[in-house]
Amino acid sequence: MIWIAILGSAVATYLTRSLPLGVTPRGRVPAAASRYLEMLPVAIIAALVGPAVVAPGNTLTHGAEPITAAIVAATVAWRRSLLAGVIVGVAAVALLRAV
Amino acid sequence: MGTTLVVGTTFGVVARQAGLEPIEIAAMSVLVFAGAAQFAMVQLFAASAPVPIVIATVLFLNLRHLLMATSLRPHLERLPLSRRMAAAFVLTDESFAMATGYVRRGGTSLAYYLTFAVALFVLWNLATLAGIALGSAIGDPRRFGIDFAITATFVGIVVLAIRRPADVAVAIVAGLVAGALALAGASTIAVITAGALAPFVGVLRRR
Prior knowledge:
The complex is a heterodimer of chains A (99) and B (207). By secondary structure, chain A is mostly helical.
C-alpha cells in the first residue's frame, strides 16, 4: 500500500510540474485562482499541524505539551531558522515530558 | 543549498523514526522530490491514512507548481518537448526562485538553471540518505521528543512562509478546522478538507 501511495504521489507531483510545460495553455491564470494556489501550501501544512497539536491520538488529553512546544518552535523558527526551531521544539517536548 | 541539506537530513531522520523502511524513504526523495509533500506523507503514513487521501493531499500541496511552471514556460519554450519534460521534474520552490532571479538579471542560459536544479536534486537525495543513517542510530524517539520533530518542522515551514496578514488568517483557520475535524472523529479527511477550504479565507480578504 505504501508503495502505491509513493508512486501515486510521484505521478501527481510530476503532473503539477510538467502540465504547463507540456500542453499549450490558453489565456492566463485568473487572479483569484492564482491567489488560491499560492495559499494552498500554507493552509495544508497548517492543517497538518492542527490535529498534531490540538488532538494527538485524537484526544485532547496531551494538548498542553505539544501546544507549548509548537509555540516555542514557531518563535525560534521565526527569529532564527527552521533548523533551530525544530531542535528547540524537540528539546521543549523532551523537557516537558521529563517534568 | 544549505537549507536543502538540512531539511533533507531532517526528513530522513523523521521518516526513519516514524517507522518507514530506508528503501521507501529513499524512493520518496528520488521519485516525489518535494520537501513539504514528503513530510506530509510521513505524517499521513504514521496516522494510517488511506492511499487516496495521501495522494490527494500531495496533489493539493503541489498544485502551486502549476503557477511556477506556467511562469517559466516562456524561458523553456525553445527546448524540445523531451527536454522540457526532464526540466519539469527538477522544478522546485528553490530552483524556481533561483531561475526567477537569474532571468530578471538578464540571464538566458538554460544550462545554468538545469545545473542548479539537478544539483539540488542530488543534494536532497544525499541528505536524505544521511538522515536515514542518523535516524536509524537514534533509539527510543519519544524519550528525546524526536516524534515531535515533524510537527516542529511544519510549524517552522508555516511561520517562514507567512508574507501577508491573509496568510496568518489562512494558517489559523486551517489549523483550527483540521484540529476540530480530528477531534470530531473525522481525522482521515481533516487535513485535506481544512487545507483545501482555508485558502478561500485569504482569497476573500483580497490582501
